[in-house]
Design a protein that fits this description.
The complex is a heterotrimer of chains A (335), B (567) and C (305).
Chain A lengths: L1 H27 L15 H10 L6 H25 L19 H36 L4 H15 L2 H15 L16 H38 L2 H8 L4 H24 L1 H6 L1 H7 L4 H10 L3 H29 L7
Helix pairs in contact in A: 1-13, 4-5, 4-7, 5-7, 6-7, 6-11, 7-9, 9-13, 11-12, 12-13
Chain B lengths: L5 H14 L9 E6 L14 H7 L7 E3 L5 E3 L19 E5 L14 H12 L14 E5 L5 E6 L20 H4 L11 H5 L7 E7 L3 E6 L13 E6 L3 H9 L6 E2 L6 H8 L4 E16 L26 H9 L3 H8 L4 E3 L22 H10 L12 E2 L2 E2 L1 E7 L2 H17 L2 E7 L1 H4 L17 E6 L7 H4 L25 H12 L3 H15 L6 E14 L2 E2 L17 E2 L2
Helix pairs in contact in B: 8-10, 14-15
Chain C lengths: L12 H11 L1 H18 L1 H4 L11 H6 L20 H36 L1 H16 L2 H20 L1 H16 L2 H15 L2 H8 L4 H37 L11 H9 L6 H28 L7
Helix pairs in contact in C: 1-13, 2-5, 2-13, 5-6, 5-8, 5-9, 5-11, 5-12, 7-8, 9-11, 10-11, 11-12, 11-13, 12-13
The chains are: A mainly alpha (335), B alpha+beta (567), C mainly alpha (305).
Chain lengths: 335, 567, 305
């Protein structure tokens, strides 16, 4: 298992390098220009100087190598400095955003908490509601519970989140005025009142996103359960006179959850960057919103870095899913 | 210039009475919403309005502009003029006197050395200063003593209120920014996010493109102000959500630039928690006519250059007819409502520079048709499109991508179709359209279209640099990497001569007369520029927020120190 | 099936599949809804001839016809500049569905090509599967946004505003969603390749190209068909997301996604938002049900049970 993991990790390096090059090129060779955000009142000579100061005049491979160096060397050093108060990085230039001149990782750091709380709790909630529904629907296949559950999960799966989100905002925020329309990112949960406030502003986005994710997870759970319920070992277990609860919850469930766990692991990177639409609809200043606004102002370093970080997470969670599969299913051996 | 609602006027008036009694920090917290979130608080590194305005809570210039566009003192004793001797007769030197005893928010004194440093900071060749134009034409800055700043110009400066005036050229603290000169400017993250200033507030926390937390400056020069102890400037979302948060739900006290469509203006104002404020500056949405031939059949490098005059639009009668067919008031009603008004002028304000020309306001479809007939454009083959000598009257009409602009395009196209003109619409992403990339065929400077629509304005109150954009030698072309500002390729020696004259005139009455004439030469005398809508600012303020006066000549937060809570 | 005492007339595979498909209630409803929607956007405009794009040039009339509610003349009302929403919904649907079908076609085409090449030619297998893995690791939605936003301008300049947007969106969606098809096809090809009939064909000297087209492709058809239906749903959602985020088609050229975006900017009339949103949801829902039904019908383990 260890050698397998190590081999996979080593294999991931060339993949990631290739991905970084693809991302850099796609973003960098685009025809837009970060200059478009500068008002027309700024004279052309001044614009030219700003361009030069951003380092936009260097050829692309120089900028690519610089970006790589900053991403893999300078920024981790600054991270270590921050944690342990060392001075490893010295004053090496950091990876800066074009529009705010802030270190890109500082921006990500500021955005991460709200993304993790909202998207993360939506994901957790989705799993918590999806598993029992999936299990029970499979156990009582074709019952009214299953029919309704399948239909709802089909709807949750098919109706785009931005549409459900907008309808919810119109009903609950605009007409009923139950929820705040702006997400307060500087709210710190310190006591019961702030906790309630936090819950209040998180409700709509979490519900919308959880509905969508739950639909997906419950569909997987149901089909995986169905597959296992018709296996011979279930019949054997029942024939032995084992209690129905033990059969379903202990044997069938354990085997059925193996593919579900991997699906959940594979979906995890979306917590980081994938909920772009939800953040946009509910005006949460998270990572997805940072990415969108960076795309709009051609803030190339931010776009490249967020996209690449997401790619790293995807590769990482793919690996985790594979390893989990091996750990959970003794039939699979990676040697 | 200012068209505040009567209600707000009353609120503001009532405000002055109570404000005098207030003490610093007595009114608690105020929530401000900038839906385009501030990304940096150093206006020298960003020219975005959101950044400049938020920074103005902390950083101030020596002087500023009030809501009428007049120069008002901030850090100085008074405004230097020729009359009080602060400005020399030859317009070559201006002397500013700092108020005595001024302190930075960290408690150190403000001196003339800070001003000299700021000048050096922004004019450093490697700094990429976004406001370098404010310091143009300065020969040297002298500091005879700690409270005196003498600016010497290389040529007579009829309008010397650029350097250190307004939110776009504030004073930086020399001590804080000493290590941030030139190429190091961008790496000074802490300084750029938390500048030390003289303004009513200081930055406590800054989250890029998200939130700025501020609190009252303990060393602010007026001991009774600001009335609010803390302020949050929140970013994110869109104009509608911002308007709603102030007008309907009351979550926020002030929202900047709540450009929403007219129906929603009415509907949200009915929410009763706040009012929409509007004010007009110099931003004009216009159609620019291409005086050169953009035809794709020409060789690259010759398209839209002065070598080939435009085959159709070179005739003033066609340009005039196109202008006459437009119903500007209808455009305002569709797109801007309270935040716009029909205009025929390129320079709609300040009042002293604005021409009283209104002849384009009424739509005259029949007159336009007659004019085209007279110019020889008739529909000879009955297909509904006019033609002349085998050339069809067909235009390519481009603009940047934006819902209001696309509505305008659709409506104007229908009017021009009615006139017998075939119109092809095109919209280009703003990042490309305004991107200025010499390699892209779609920039507004390259103008590979017959007509194009966008909005532009000028900085401050003096239109001279703006009008000087239409000089013959500022025509964009391959030889200058398409970087000129004379977008229409308009060229008239008489115009150039008058701009030259304007640059030598100091007398305000005379300047205003010349500027009006120049404006008319571009609009009603030639129809090279076809102004459509004078676009105002539309912001929203809560009914409980007092002291708000919308200012379009400086930052909207120009008098945040006077804001208070109405109880 | 196992009981061989009754000999039935031979039935073709597709009749079997159809019989099984018909038994899936959701899939049948989905099929009817999809056919209805297709008729609505394709045949509808022949009967409903209101102008979807141009604005009434008579300003007074145009102003009177803005933001109307439902009526006999405009069953779904009119929009911000007085255009009939039903006519726009028909045109928009045509574009949205076209994007869905064409992008799915691109994804299936690329995926099948790569899958067959990787499965059939051992030499290419490793390289192509690495490529597939790399694509699977790309952050797709961010990249798609970047692609469409940053390169849309070039395409629009090249092919005109609408066709250019269409191409970039279709290409973008197609090129970011072929990977699963490629994996499925490769697996099938690997299995089919070793079967006797392929070996027989090879032993009589049939060239690879013919083996692939005659023997292998027909056998990977079923999983590809299921992937294709789900691909349509995915493509329609992706297009609407892009348009909703303001990166896709522009308001002067309606698609369901851009209509939703446009209506969202005019929230005083929320009804304008409901119709396109409902249309997208119904389409995707019906396509997903059809996909479910097809999967059951094409699965020989389930079929005939």
């Amino acid at each position: 298992m260890l050698t397998y993991t190590l081999r996979r990790l080593l294999l991931a390096i060339p993949t990631l390098l290739l991905i970084s090059l693809v991302i850099f090129l796609v973003v960098d060779l685009a025809p837009g220009s970060p200059m478009s955000e500068i008002p027309l009142t700024v004279p052309p000579e001044v614009q030219a100087k700003i361009r030069a100061a951003l380092g936009l005049d260097a050829p692309f491979y120089v900028r690519y190598l610089l970006w790589m160096k900053q991403f893999f060397w300078t920024e981790p050093l600054y991270g270590i400095d921050n944690l342990f108060g060392t001075q490893l990085a010295g004053d090496a230039p950091r990876l800066l955003s074009y529009s705010s001149r802030a270190p890109v990782f500082r921006i990500i750091g500021e955005r991460l908490p709200q993304t993790l709380t909202v998207i993360g709790s939506a994901y957790l909630l989705a799993i918590v509601i999806a598993l029992p529904i999936g299990i029970y629907s499979a156990y009582r296949q074709y019952s009214w519970f299953d029919q309704i559950g399948t239909f709802i999960s089909m709807i949750g799966f098919s109706v785009p989140t931005f549409f459900t989100g907008l309808v919810m905002i119109l009903i609950f925020t605009v007409y009923l005025g139950w929820f705040p329309s702006i997400f307060n990112t500087s709210l710190r949960v310190t006591d019961w009142a702030t906790f309630k406030q936090m819950l209040h502003q998180m409700t709509l986005p979490v519900v919308v996103l959880a509905l969508y994710n739950a639909a997906e997870v419950s569909r997987y759970t149901r089909s995986s359960m169905l597959e296992n319920l018709s296996q011979d070992y279930v019949r054997t277990a029942r024939a032995k006179g084992m209690g129905e609860g033990t059969v379903v919850l202990k044997h069938v469930l354990r085997n059925s959850l193996i593919p579900v766990v991997t699906i959940i692991a594979l979906g995890a990177p979306t917590i980081f960057g994938g909920a772009i639409v939800t953040e946009q609809v509910f005006k949460i200043n998270g990572i997805g919103a940072a990415l969108i606004s960076a795309i709009h102002v051609n803030d190339l370093p931010v776009v490249q870095t967020i996209a690449f970080l997401t790619a790293i997470l995807i590769v990482l969670f793919n690996l985790i899913a594979d390893i989990l599969y091996g750990v959970l299913d003794p039939r699979i051996r990676y040697d | 210039m200012k068209m505040r609602t009567a209600l707000l006027g009353a609120v503001a008036f009532a405000g002055f009475g109570t404000a005098a009694l207030a003490e610093r920090g007595a009114d608690g917290h105020v929530n401000v919403l900038y839906w385009q979130a501030p990304s940096i608080l150093n206006p020298y590194l960003s020219s975005g309005t959101k950044d400049v305005e938020t920074a103005s809570l902390v950083l101030e210039g020596l002087a500023g502009f009030n809501e009428k566009g007049e120069v008002i003192p901030r850090l100085v004793v008074d405004i230097p003029t020729v009359e009080n001797g602060g400005l020399t007769e030859d317009l070559m030197q201006i002397t500013w006197k700092l108020k005595p005893g001024l302190l930075w928010s960290d408690g150190t004194p403000v001196t003339s050395a800070d001003a000299k440093f700021t000048y050096e900071y922004c004019t450093h060749p490697e700094g990429g200063c976004a406001q370098a134009a404010r310091y143009e034409g300065i020969a040297a800055i002298e500091t005879p003593d700690a409270e005196t700043i003498v600016i010497k110009y290389t040529a007579p400066k009829p309008n010397p209120y650029t350097a250190f005036v307004g939110a776009t050229s504030p004073l930086l603290q020399a001590a804080q920014f000493a290590n941030c000169l030139g190429a190091a400017a961008s790496t000074c993250t802490d300084q750029n996010f938390m500048p030390i200033g003289t303004g009513p507030f200081i930055v406590k926390d800054f989250k890029v493109n998200d939130t700025v937390e501020l609190e009252a400056n303990p060393n602010y020069r007026d001991p009774a102000k600001p009335a609010f102890a803390t302020m949050t400037v929140k970013g994110g979302g869109d104009a509608q959500a911002a308007a709603r948060a102030v007008l309907e739900t009351g979550e926020f006290d002030y929202a900047w630039n709540t450009q929403i469509n007219p129906e929603m203006q009415t509907q949200m104002a009915a929410g009763g928690k706040g009012v929409l404020l509007n004010g007009f500056g110099t931003l004009v949405e216009r159609i620019e006519m291409n005086m050169t031939d953009p035809s794709p059949s020409l060789a690259e490098g010759e398209r839209s250059t002065t070598k080939h005059p435009h085959p159709v639009l070179s005739d003033i009668r066609v340009r005039k007819a196109l202008s006459m067919a437009i119903d500007r008031q209808a455009l305002v009603d569709i797109g801007y409502g309270q935040a716009g008004r029909a205009t025929c002028n390129l320079v709609p304000a300040p009042e002293m520079f604005a021409s009283d020309n209104t002849e384009c306001i009424a739509q005259d479809m029949e007159g336009a048709k007659a004019l085209l007939e007279e110019a020889g454009w008739t529909d000879s083959n009955g297909d509904g499109i006019r033609d002349k000598d085998g050339v069809k009257l067909a235009l390519l009409y481009q603009t940047s991508t934006n819902p209001v602009r696309q509505d305008f395009q659709a409506v104007i196209k229908s009017w021009w179709n009615e006139l017998g003109v075939e119109v092809e619409l095109k919209n280009v992403d703003s990042s490309v359209f305004f991107g200025g990339d010499a390699g892209s065929p779609d920039t507004f400077q390259k103008f590979y279209a017959d007509v194009e629509m966008y909005a532009n304005n000028f900085d401050g109150t003096d239109p001279e640099p703006y009008l000087a954009q239409y000089l013959c030698d500022k025509i964009p072309g391959p030889e200058n990497q398409w970087q000129g500002e004379n977008i229409n390729r308009f060229c008239d020696p008489a115009y150039d001569a008058m701009v030259e004259e304007l640059s030598k005139t100091a007398d305000m009455a005379k300047r205003s007369e010349i500027a009006k004439k120049l404006n008319e030469m571009l609009t009603k005398d030639s129809y090279v520029v076809v102004p459509l809508v004078d676009r105002g600012r539309l912001s929203a303020a809560s009914n409980t927020l007092g002291g708000v006066i919308l200012n379009t000549w400086d930052t909207e937060l120009w008098n945040a120190s006077d804001w208070f809570r109405i109880k | 099936m196992t009981d061989a005492t009754v000999i039935e007339a031979p039935r073709s595979l597709w009749l079997d599949v159809w019989a099984q498909f018909r038994a899936h209630r959701g899939a049948m409803v989905g099929l009817f809804v999809l056919i209805f929607l297709l008729l609505f956007v394709l045949v509808g405009p022949l009967f409903w001839t209101k102008e979807p794009i141009l604005v009434n040039s008579n300003t007074a009339q145009m102003f009177k016809s803005r933001n109307l509610g439902a009526s006999l003349t405009n069953p779904l009302g009119t929009d911000q500049v007085g255009r009939d929403i039903m006519a726009r919904l028909m045109l928009g649907g045509k574009v949205s569905l076209a994007v869905g079908f064409v992008a799915m076609g691109v994804a299936i085409g690329v995926g099948t090509l790569i899958g067959v090449l990787a499965g059939y030619f051992r030499a290419l297998d490793n390289a192509l599967m690495r490529l597939t893995d790399m694509f699977l690791s790309l952050p797709l939605l961010p990249l798609l946004l970047v692609l469409v936003y940053l390169y849309g301008g070039v395409m629009r300049a090249e092919f005109g505003p609408n066709l250019g947007t269409f191409f970039i969106i279709v290409a973008g969606i197609g090129l970011t969603s072929w990977m699963h098809v490629a994996r499925i096809v490769r697996g099938q090809v690997l299995a089919v390749k070793e079967r006797e009939f392929v070996l027989a064909a090879r032993s009589i000297g049939t060239p690879s190209r013919r083996i692939i087209t005659r023997h292998i492709l027909p056998n990977v058809l079923s999983p590809v068909m299921v992937a294709a239906t789900l691909g349509i749903a995915n493509a329609i959602i992706t297009e609407s997301v892009l348009s909703f985020l303001g990166q896709g088609f522009q308001p002067d050229f309606p698609t369901w996604g851009s209509m939703l975006n446009y209506a969202y900017n005019n929230q005083s009339y929320p009804v304008q938002m409901i119709w396109p949103g409902l249309a997208i949801s119904l389409t995707v829902l019906s396509v997903n049900y059809i996909g479910d039904g097809l999967r059951d019908a094409l699965d020989p383990r389930i079929r005939g049970r």
